[in-house]
Amino acid sequence: MLTARQRAFADAILGGDTVADAYRSAYTTGGMSPKHVRTEASRVHKHPGVSRAIDAGRVRQEREKGRNEANRRRSVLDRLETLADDTAQPGAVRVQALKLIGTDVGLFHPNAKLEVKTTQPETEAATLEALESTLREALEAG
């Protein structure tokens, strides 16, 4: 169990303060030299209970950060899905929304290069066959 001052120190560290600043915010340092503040701050920081509280707090912060990122991602995807389904939106907006959703789920690879053969087929059937072949290669590469 931490004292109120140790808890305040750990909270200040988790809030982004330096060790010395966290010590100054949690303890009375009026007559202390900067060197003495740093020494005492280091001592408190190394206290087993304080260091465990800081480690646990960092784990909580990372978990919360991941949860926030996942929520933000889901929110963006929901908005894109709404745009893609809205027939009042211009076609280009709807296609772009679908493209972004597809990229997110791994359907498209934005940096993939597609090589198109430049030979001209002689017949319509040959053109369709060449197109199917090119599309098949693109899908297999993705």
Question: How would you sum up this structure, described in words?
Answer:
This protein has 142 residues and is mostly helical. Among the domains are: 4-69, no CATH class; 113-142. It contains 6 helices and no strands. It has helices at residues 4-14, 19-26, 34-46, 48-85, 91-104, 124-141. The protein is elongated and about 95 Å long.
What would you report as the Rg, rounded to the nearest angstrom?
29 Å
- What is the residue-averaged pLDDT? 87
Q: Give the biggest beta sheet.
A: none
Percentage of β-strand residues: under 5%
CA-to-CA gap between the ends? Answer: 55 Å
In sequence order, what are the helices and strands, one letter per element? HHHHHH
Number of strands: 0
Residue runs with pLDDT of under 50 for 5 or more positions: none
Counting helices, strands and paired strands, the structural category is mainly alpha
Helix percentage? over 70%
| Alpha plus pi helix count | 6
Shape from CA axes? elongated
Question: Could you give a quick summary of the protein structure above?
Answer:
By secondary structure, the chain is mainly α. The protein has six helices and no strands.
Topology, element by element:
Blueprint: H1 4-14, H2 19-26, H3 34-46, H4 48-85, H5 91-104, H6 124-141
